[in-house]
Amino acid sequence: MRCIVFEPNTGGHRMTYVGLLLSALAEMLPTTLVTTDGATTTEEFSAQVGPLLERFHDRLSVDASAEPVPRGMLPSARSRLRSFRGAMQSTSEETRVFAPTADGLAQLAGLAVRLGRNPVPLGVSVEAALHRGSWAYPAAGWKRSIQVATSLALVRAAPFSVLHHVDVTSYEWLKTQGGPLGLRSRLLPDPVEFGDTREASDARRRLELPVGGRIVGCAGSMDTRKGMDLLVRAFKLAHDRGLLERDDRLLLVGKLKPAIRAIIEGECSDLTSTGRLLLIDRYVSNEELDDAICAMDVVCTPYPAHVGLSNIALRAAHAGRYVLGSGYGWQGLVIPRFGLGTLLESARNLHGFSAAIPVALDASESHAPSEASRELVRFHTPENFASAFTRDTRRSMGLADDDGLVPWPV
User: Fold this and answer.
1) Which residues pair with 300 in a beta bridge?
2) CA 102 – CA 208 distance, rounded (Å)
3) Residue 95 bridge partners (DSSP)
């Protein structure tokens, strides 16, 4: 038996996924990474895969024959399907293929099956990870409903033996539906690299922020998709309504998108001039990101219609910070279940949002991480990601599960 890890993309955290998976697989079986020639020259490849090639020089190889992935959802999926099909054509022995990022690829593979062109040859089993499961979320309008239903039907037809779901909302919805797809579904941890937890005062000094007072904020993508426009306006409204303490502040950490910058420099300019709005307007390192989370009393993730999990909310849980999050999707399920904080009834309701901010700041003063939240953090670690993704392979080889495998804390 041999393994293939298929990943032609290098953006985001894809090479982190690849590196963790390669390390776990190469411990057991000869493994090949199929990627693009361009990917092998990136910093991400050098950092995540390079050391493994030295460590497993006799069992780990790279096949850079995949075609470069074009921009656009459909062209990207088509390109990846062609490369995916090609990666398995020369297979002459029992092979397990892993696709750590299969959104779009799974749907087109399912369509190929429906058209009588199964891309997976005999003797090959495929395990794929899906990061988005829109079928478990409300669909706005009939067009979106048709798109979501079509996506689900194609995923059901995908010729994959195991489908790993990073989003527990999607996973639990599929399990309640039952059927073959539910039986093939597994829940996959998101491999969050949690940094050291610091006292808020220490983190603020490291970031050169005011040490005193209470801070609500967010870090990461400073765009409207994550509701940062709503957060700034809600804080402004809470300030204007006299709902905040004199030294309550809003902290935004990450490169501002133009739309957010326009709001801050326009209708909310008084917040920056008076020091009520603190900005670290640049891309930040992982260490700075952890400091930013630790510097906050309340981490606010108001993502109005986000499909998928929130990495920032998970980091807040690790740091023991109170979360004021969206009631939509993953957050609406996870925040109350694990005692991470409270939910916004609607992030778009600025009046209600503004009132929720001081309430959350007050609640944060007595907030302590629950055992459930600690279990959630233990689930979402790089080590548990690797253990969960390779569990079925280990069982097929007659091996026991990893000793450190952490189950989903139901």
Assistant:
1) 324
2) 41
3) 2, 124
Instruction: Give the pLDDT confidence score for residue 8 in this predicted structure.
Output: 92
**Backbone dihedral region of 336: left (phi > 0), alpha (psi from -120 to 50 degrees) or beta?**
alpha
Report residue 392 as tokens: 């079925």
Strands, DSSP E only, in 118-233?
A: 124-130, 162-165, 185-187, 215-219
Chain centroid to Cα 220, Å, comes to 12
The answer to whether the CB of 38 falls within 8 A of the CB of 66 is no
Q: What is the pLDDT of residue 185?
A: 97
Q: How many CB atoms lie within 10 A of CB 143?
A: 9
**Rg of the Cα atoms in the chain:** 23
The owner of tokens 């495998």 is 405
pLDDT of residue 92: 67
pLDDT for 12: 67
User: What gap in Å lies between CA 28 and CA 19, rounded to an integer?
Assistant: 15
Joined together, the tokens standing for residue 167 give 């989003």
pLDDT tens digits along 51-92: 999 999 999 999 999 999 888 888 888 899 999 999 988 776
Segments of the chain with pLDDT less than 70: 12, 92
CA dist., res. 84 & res. 119, Å (int)? 8
φ/ψ region of 141 (left if φ > 0, alpha if ψ in -120 to 50, else beta) reads left
Task: For CA atoms 94, 100, 106, 108, give the dihedral sign.
Answer: negative
Please report, for residues 106, 114, 116, 142, the alpha-carbon distance to residue 146 in angstroms, rounded to integers and kept in the order given. Answer: 18, 18, 23, 6
**Nearest alpha-carbon partner for 283 in 302, 256, 262:** 256
Instruction: Note if the pTM is more than 0.85.
Output: yes
Element (H, E) at 35: strand 31-36
